[in-house]
Each structure stands twice: as C-alpha cells, then as structure tokens.
Amino acid sequence: MNRKLSTLAWTVVLLVISALPAPAGEVIDRIVATVNGHIIMQSDWEDAVRYEAFTAGRDLNQVTAEERKAALDRLIDQELLHEQMRASDFPHATDQEVGKRVQEIRQQYPGAETPQGWQAALARYGLAENELTSRVGLQLDLMRLVDARLRPTVQIDSKSIESYYNQELLPQVRQSGAKDVPLAEVTPKIKELLTQKKMNQLLTAWLQSLRAGSEIHSDTAESAAGGRPQ
Questions:
Q1: Model's pTM, two decimal places?
Q2: Which residue, 91, 107, 109, 88, is CA-closest to 99?
Q3: From residue 123, how far is each of 50, 101, 166, 228 by CA, in Å?
Q4: Which residues contact 194 (CB under 8 A, 6 or more apart)?
Q5: Is residue 1 part of a domain?
Q6: Is residue 94 part of a domain?
Q7: pLDDT-derived band of residue 195, with 50, 70 and 90 as boundaries?
Q8: Is the pLDDT of residue 2 over 70?
Q9: Cβ-proximal residues to 140 (8 Å cutoff; 6+ apart), any chain
C-alpha cells in the first residue's frame, strides 16, 4: 500500500479480518503490523520465526512467546531499514557471499552435506531453499547498509584500546593460564570489537529515531501468546 493507513482504517481492517469465517482446518492469514502503510502478515511473522530458528540451529518448539514477539520487532525494524536501503547507494551482497553464508548454515545440520539431507533439514522448518537464499541476501544487504551508514561515524582512539586491553583482555588471558599477548598484536581485533560495540549502540539509537518518525501499528496479543509456526 502506498498511502498510510489511518488509525481508524487500521482498526477497521483488523476487525474485518478477524470477523471473517474460516473453513474447518483452515488458518486465515491476518495483519499483525503495518509500517508506514507496509503490511506485515501473520505468515510473514511465522516465516521470520522459522528462518531465525533455522539459522540459529534451534528447534522450533524451543521458541518462546517472548522470542516470537522479539522476532516481530525485528521484522518491523527490518522494514524501517529496508525503506532506508531503497534510498541508499551501497554495494549489495554478491551471489558468492550469499552462497558462503548459506553453506555456513548448512554445516550446522548433520547429514545436510547430501542434497537429500539438506532438503530434509529445510523441510523440518517449512523452508524452501530459494526462500532461504533470498532471506540471507536481504540480511547481508541490511548489514552492509548499517555498516556503510554507521562505521564512518565511529572513532576508536588508542586510549580506549589500551584500556580494554588492560581491564578486559589481560584479566581473561591470565585467568585462563595463557601467556600475555602483546598489545600491538591484538590492537586491530580490539579496535574492531570496540567499533562493533559502538555501532550496535548507534544502530539502537537510529532505529529508535526511525520508529519515532514512522507510523507503526501492531496487534500481537493473540499470536504472541499462543502462536507457533505450524
């Protein structure tokens, strides 16, 4: 939808859909959120839960109601970032990068090295291989967008690196019984770790700003409490 749903229209849509009769055994898809007029359906939410569980190597039955709600929040954030991505110029993930990530996921599942084993693993989560590839590509693109937007704003000085080395890294190394590692040797890794930490903070603030400037509606009470991907 190109124009935003008003609060009244949103309420009417939810009431109409929830009032429709369902044939026996049939689950009716329904709107669970809108983001600036873009509709997120129950099926989109369940697909996201399946995908997240699959890439994390978790059983779907282990996903809690709170984790399902968090998955919907990430879907909303994803749509906000997707809007930014459409207006941004950055290098998208290549087919090789997407394929590499898919292979990393595949290696989590015993027996998935064969085509039959891989298809069986996907089927347990109700996923198709082309759907997985598409979602991995989008995830990599969103990560690239965030990196292109936020990394240039992060500056990590030598004092911060030295402080982390003395207060965090050395105590961990000595507790493990390993030999002290020279600061110069680990400086690049510490700098990247601190950069990622700062970028996470900036991303949280960016998403909060995007949410504040957007029209977002969600209705999750029914699904979060009792929903499980079928």
A1: 0.77
A2: 107
A3: 11, 19, 49, 16
A4: 156, 160, 161, 164
A5: no
A6: yes
A7: very high
A8: no
A9: 93, 97, 98, 101
Q: Domain for residue 2, yes or no? A: no
Residue 90: pLDDT over 90:
no
How many domains does one find in the chain? 1
Q: What is the CATH number for 53?
A: 1.10.4030.10
Res 9 pLDDT > 70? no
Q: What is the DSSP string of 113-154?
A: TSHHHHHHHHHHTT--HHHHHHHHHHHHHHHHHHHHHHGGG-
Residue pLDDT, tens place only, 123-182 = 999 999 999 999 999 999 999 999 999 999 999 999 999 999 999 999 999 999 989 999
What token pair was written down for 21?
């009769």
If you ran DSSP here, which 8-state letter would residue 61 be given?
A: G
Helix then strand then coil, in percent of the chain rounded to 5, is 65, 5, 25
Q: Is the pLDDT at 11 greater than 80, yes or no?
A: no
Band the pLDDT of 220: cuts 50, 70, 90. low
In sequence order, the 6+-apart residues with CB closer than 8 A to the CB of 38 are 1, 79
Find where tokens 């979060």 sit.
224
Contact call for residues 27 and 230 (beta carbons, < 8 A): yes
Range of the domain at 115: 7-226
Residue among 161, 166, 226, 222 nearest 189 (CA): 161
